[in-house]
Amino acid sequence: MSQQPSIFDILGPIMIGPSSSHTAGASRIGYIARQLLHDEPKKAVITLYNSFAKTHKGHGTDKAIIGGILGFGPDDERIRESHELAKKQGLEWEFQFRGDATKFHSNTARVKLFGKKGGAVEVVGASLGGGRIRIQEIEGFPVDFTAQAHTLVIIADDIPGSIKNISGAIAEHGVNIANMFVSRNETKANMVIELDQAVNAETLQKIESLSWVRFVRHVEPMTEHSSRYEK
Amino acid sequence: MEFNLLADIAEYCAREKKDMAQAMLDYEMKNKHLSREDVYSGLKRVLLTMEDSVEQGLTQMVISPSGMLNNWAKTVYNSKTETLGPRLKKAIARAIAVGEVNACMGKIAAAPTAGSAGIMPAVLVTMIEEHNIPREKLLDGLLVSSAVGLIFAKNSSFAGSEAGCMGETGSAAAMAAATIVYLLGGTNDQILEAVGFALKASMGLVCDPVGGLVEEPCTTRNAVGVANAFVSAQMALAGIKSLIPVDEVIFATKEVGDLMSPRLKESGQGGLANTKTGRDIQKRVFRTAE
Fold first, then answer.
1. Residue A5 to residue B150, Cβ atoms within 8 A
2. In angstroms, rounded to a whole number, what is the distance separating the alpha carbons of residues A153 and A191?
3. Do B46 and A12 form a contact (C-beta atoms < 8 A)?
4. Least packed by Cβ within 10 Å: which of A47, A222, B125, B132?
5. Nearest Cβ partner for B45 among A17, A18, A228
6. Looking at the domain assignment, is residue B1 inside a domain?
7. pLDDT in tens, A185-223
8. Which of A144-148, B190-194, B262-266 has the highest mean pLDDT?
9. A7–B213: do the CB atoms touch at under 8 Å?
10. Residue A156 distance to chain B (closest CA, Å)
11. Nearest by CB to B159, which of A9, A97, A129?
């Protein structure tokens, strides 16, 4: 993968306005939270920080995040009516605002989702401009990824050999690991693994079946190109 | 494949006997492992989005949630008074149309940013209307604009918070000026001269939107950006020179952006955002968010 910018970084993103950071980026944070929940959401508690908190109304940040949670991409015109559509789907939500959270990037959102099957996930993401985002926290673990590559997020008991086992399962199916970040608390480890290709369902099941693995999610890349080329 | 200067791209064109659109096609195909069809279908989607956004702004009711924009594109388009005939009037109305659609949560293609998204569509639609340029050729025009954007992004910045509006409507006007020269059969040298003229006219332009919203003065600055693009392309096609080589002009925009006070770069603390009326509007729009 080349590091050179794409011409579609300049002619794009194709997006719902008005702001690549406050609208397009915000929708992507919601969309990633939805992928990490891996279920139909029934409730969302969203905290907007700093510039997001102060200017969300004028930029439709609240509509964009709910749209993302419903699975809409940043160029999906349903974002405009996302609140009405969410109500129809039985999603309840609540926004909280923290205008002066200096430890967070100026455009940050915390999204806590509760799924219909009983699961829940809490994600913090920052919108960096141009529609690009950075996920900074998942389930209380500090993380750092942009969702521009296929990304695996795994939370597991912190036992010796856990990293070797998981990377082995991925390599077994011929998928290259581009980057791997590990963080720990007292008992658990969080791994964020960026891959050159998607992993197949079999690999995911194999990792999930390990007794000490608590949470496995595949986040698909958030490039514009995939949706742009569908026509 | 790497281009770091507009001169690099011009050199590649001379060496490979290709035009600037073909150079950028090669660049995208090689770096992103895409076929020619992939790149053109991506460009088609950008062009369709741009055309739709112009159309929407000229035909639908567009009143921004803040109330600052209120069907201005149609007002300009239908105006009976014409300072320079219908062409300029219609061209700038198209840019305002996209700005209004963007403010109303419509679909736009950032080019290079959402705040400057009106300039490229207005220029492309105007080139169809006034010069009968075939739509297929406009895709090559988009490729040429991406050459300018690519080098500007590398050596300066699109971010209003780093380079002010110079980085947004200034770079968009430069991209559009290059497109016009290319579509009218200008040489690579003339393309680069046009880019230089457009950027020199935008040097030091601040980013001071009222309430931090992409509305005032962004929308009317897009209109001025369209005029800048046509003026710059006209001068270059006539054969006059920008004197300072375009890559040096781009480095100068970086220096100027760095020298500009942060208060004038998308912080809402200076310029129009900091006027009495600007502050009053901000309070009115955001009173529920405090």
1. yes
2. 6
3. yes
4. B132
5. A228
6. no
7. 999 999 999 999 898 999 999 999 999 999 999 999 876
8. B190-194
9. no
10. 35
11. A129
- Is the CB of residue A69 less than 8 Å from the CB of residue A91? yes
Q: Cα(A129)–Cα(A122) distance, rounded to whole angstroms?
A: 22
CATH of A150-231, one of 3.40.50.10490, 3.40.710.10, 3.40.830.10, 3.30.70.260: 3.30.70.260
CA distance A56 to chain B (A): 8
Domain total for chain B?
1
Q: What superfamily does domain A14-138 belong to in CATH?
A: D-3-phosphoglycerate dehydrogenase; domain 3 (3.30.1330.90)
Number of Cβ within 10 Å of residue A57's Cβ equals 18
What average pLDDT does this structure show over A106-125? 96
> Cα dist. A53→A23, A99, A139, B222 in Å?
13, 5, 22, 28
ipTM of the complex: 0.95
> DSSP secondary-structure letter at B26?
H
A11/B109 CB distance under 8 A:
yes
For residue B80, what is the domain's CATH number? Answer: 1.10.4100
Give the domain range for residue B163.
6-289
Residues in chain B within 8 Å Cβ distance of A129 = 159, 161
Give the DSSP H or E segment for B203: none
SS3 content of chain B, % helix, strand, coil (to 5): 70, 0, 25
The closest of B290, B278, B179, B265 to B225, measured between CA atoms, is: B179
Residue B124 lies in a domain: yes
